[in-house]
Amino acid sequence: MAGEFTSTETMCRISSFYHGFSLSNAYKREYRDLSDADFPAWPASIPVAAKLAIVFCFPGSPRYHRQVHIRRTDSGVLTRGKLATIVAREVQRFLGQVRRAGNQDPLGRCGVHLALENFVLVDVQHVSKGSLQPTIGIIAKSNE
């Protein structure tokens, strides 16, 4: 039947948890608040392509999908810190694209302007050899 998977077709999602790590800090490569920043994002047994698709959707905004190059160290390990930086860079790029398309307040809620400082990384799912799906939280700070 269409849409069903057999056990051999089932894809295992592997997650790397970030527990609300600031994307602003990740963008600046400030990892002091990220546990195990220099450790691999996933176990070595998980194949990671050199170029990955990163996908995320925010309510009221277009779906974001982009191929990104994963720059690896000499050891070939994608670290948790580097992965957080990649996600932060893509969120920043998404915000710029939405603003350039004419929405000066992308994802704005109740008049609160959202910037990279309002976004946190909850986790990143490695859903296939070539695809990442981050879970991103929004923290709207009051203007008081």
Per-chain topology:
Layout: E1 14-22, H1 23-27, E2 51-56, E3 64-69, H2 80-100, E4 119-128, E5 131-138
Parallel strand pairs: 2-5
Antiparallel strand pairs: 1-4, 2-3, 4-5
% residues in beta strands: 25-35%
- Number of helical elements: 2
Number of domains: 1
How many beta-strand segments? 5
| Structural class by secondary-structure content | alpha+beta
Sequence of secondary-structure elements = EHEEHEE
> What is the general shape?
globular
Task: Describe this entry's structure for a reader.
It is a single chain. This protein is of the alpha+beta class and 144 residues long. The chain has one domain. The chain is 18% helix and 27% strand. The protein is built from two helices and five strands. A hairpin with a 2-residue loop joins β4 and β5. The radius of gyration is 16 Å and the shape is globular.
